[in-house]
């Protein structure tokens, strides 16, 4: 869906490059939704086939643990299956939360899990929340031409570098996504016309406001799928406030022979590639092929908002917290992507910064980048951070011209200097 939004922007840019596009341009939700659903089904089928090829038995049942070696499975029809094993691995992931304290939230709202399966366009949409899921959903909805509003209780992209988060939301705001800051929803009512009336409260003034939407999308966090597993009876330790499983460095739980990885692990990144890698390493350890543990440091990720944001390592705030303001050096640059030049797009929020230790070799602690193809840019530099890259290594690297990534290799203005960080010329 992010790609659908990017293509919409590309069509607009194309006119500046001489493409003659006649007539109004519109997006057909049903065509896109069908294509995405078919792709997801093909992925699921492919996984089933691969499991079968590798002689892995797949059971479509709901499981719960009876003891550290026994799992009970129930089919939809109620048929019971008992499985025993030396080790049990839990990787049930999580699902989006509904705010059960808000009247009408579940009855009239949808989540990010549902949006892919809507048969018709969600129309004018209110996205509640400001996580990466919320902003990604809002970004692609606006990108395909829908009236989109984001309601934010406190800050956007909690846990990410907040300067970068501000650039992401500023860009979205510039290109038409509306933001309602410091507000919380109070109730959702379906009117006789079929539209949804949302009532919310401004947390700063206490004033109440209302507006109508065709859809309300809740993106207010995810809950781990641990409640129905019977873990409490076995003594598997859970973090009370999150419901996640407390795990060790080797993904072990508090009960021998029971392991857990992925989103359900307390303190683990909620990222699919991280879970996949952790699962592979755990499988190798359990089968005696390796002793290697998952390295959760310097895990790269990208927020696929209209202006993509990629990062690896720690935020500027976290680096300052660890080493103090005088213990870090931050090199930064505002740059203009080549893609934005002829198209005359605003590049005010295209920015990068490299957070380093101030002393010694100036080891790189974090790298942050907003701009086109941020995921591709960040993935490459993530290898450098895993290898202990320093600021000197960065300057010794030859950039590829003309790319956005080369701007990282040229960054030379520190925040401490107070100099203008805008890139000029080549």
Question: What are the key terms here?
Answer:
426 residues, alpha/beta, Enolase-like, domain 1, six-stranded antiparallel β-sheet, 21 strands, 30% helix, FAD, EC 1.8.1.9, glutathione-disulfide reductase (NADPH) activity, thioredoxin-disulfide reductase (NADPH), NADP
How does this structure look, described?
GO terms for molecular function: flavin adenine dinucleotide binding; glutathione-disulfide reductase (NADPH) activity; thioredoxin-disulfide reductase (NADPH) activity. Pfam families: Pyr_redox_2, Pyr_redox_dim. With 426 residues, the chain is α/β, with parallel strands linked by helices. Among the domains are: 31 residues, no CATH class; 117 residues, Enolase-like, domain 1. The strands form 6 sheets. A 6-stranded antiparallel beta sheet has the order 16-17-20-19-18-21, with helices on both faces. A hairpin with a 5-residue loop joins strand 2 and strand 3. Helix 1 crosses helix 5. The protein is globular. The relative contact order is 0.11.
**In this structure, how is the largest beta sheet organized?**
6 strands, antiparallel
Stated plainly, the CATH topology of the domain at 301-417 is called: Enolase-like, domain 1
Q: How far apart are the first and last residues' alpha carbons, in Å?
A: 34 Å
How many helical elements?
Answer: 13
CATH superfamily of the domain at 301-417, called what?
FAD/NAD-linked reductase, C-terminal dimerisation domain
Overall pLDDT level: 96
CATH class group of the domain at 301-417? Alpha Beta
Domain Pyridine nucleotide-disulphide oxidoreductase dimerisation: 299-410
EC number: 1.8.1.9
Keywords: Disulfide bond, FAD, Flavoprotein, NADP, Oxidoreductase, Redox-active center, Selenocysteine
GO molecular function, one term: glutathione-disulfide reductase (NADPH) activity
